[in-house]
Amino acid sequence: MKEKILKFFSGRYGGDELTKFITYVVLAILIVRIFMPSDLLYVVALVLIVFANFRVLSKDFVKRRAENQWFLTKTSGLKNTYTKYKNRIFGKDGYKYFECSGCKSELKVPKKRGKVKVRCPKCNTEMIKRT
Ligand SMILES: [Zn+2]
Predict the structure, then answer these.
(1) What distance in angstroms lies between residue 96's CA and the mean position of ligand 1's atoms?
(2) What's the gap in Å between 95 CA and the centre of ligand 1?
(3) How far apart are the CA of 10 and the centre of ligand 1, in A?
(4) Ligand 1 center to residue 113 CA distance, Å?
(5) How many degrees, rounded to 5, is the angle at CA 18 between CA 59 and CA 49?
(6) Distance 99 CA to ligand 1 centre (A)
(7) How many angstroms separate the alpha carbon of residue 81 from the centre of ligand 1?
(8) pLDDT tens sequence for the chain (131 residues)
(9) What is the whole-number distance in angstroms between the Cα of residue 119 and the centre of ligand 1?
(10) ∠ at Cα 18 (12, 20), nearest 5°?
(11) pTM of the predicted model as reported, rounded to 2 decimal places
């Protein structure tokens, strides 16, 4: 039995970023359906599940990789923006952000440097900031 299962899954494409994204979309649709029962959402979720499983079980690696690459290209800007803000919010990028008191532009200084004097590159306003 175990060998039959292994044989069935060998040579299959498996999961990738696009499949993961589709899975999250399906999950989001199912959560929305709790509050907004809709047959259309159910059908969309079902179609997406079938498509995701088709991709996972596919043996056409070239087409699946091309689809995944297309997805990654289309979403790279969005992903970079998301990562940038996530790192900022959780302080993982090593900088502290604040607003210039003179021109309201965004400034950043490296963290853990104590009190530092910062000069805004746009309006030359100087400020003392704790990092
Ligand atoms: Zn300024």
Answers:
(1) 16
(2) 18
(3) 60
(4) 21
(5) 75
(6) 8
(7) 24
(8) 889 988 888 899 999 999 999 999 999 999 999 999 999 999 999 999 999 999 999 999 999 999 999 999 999 888 888 888 888 888 788 888 889 999 999 898 898 889 999 999 999 999 999 98
(9) 8
(10) 85
(11) 0.65
Between the CA of 98 and the centroid of ligand 1 the distance, in Å, is 11
Residue 32 token pair? 């929305």
Extract the tokens encoding 18.
Answer: 């696009």
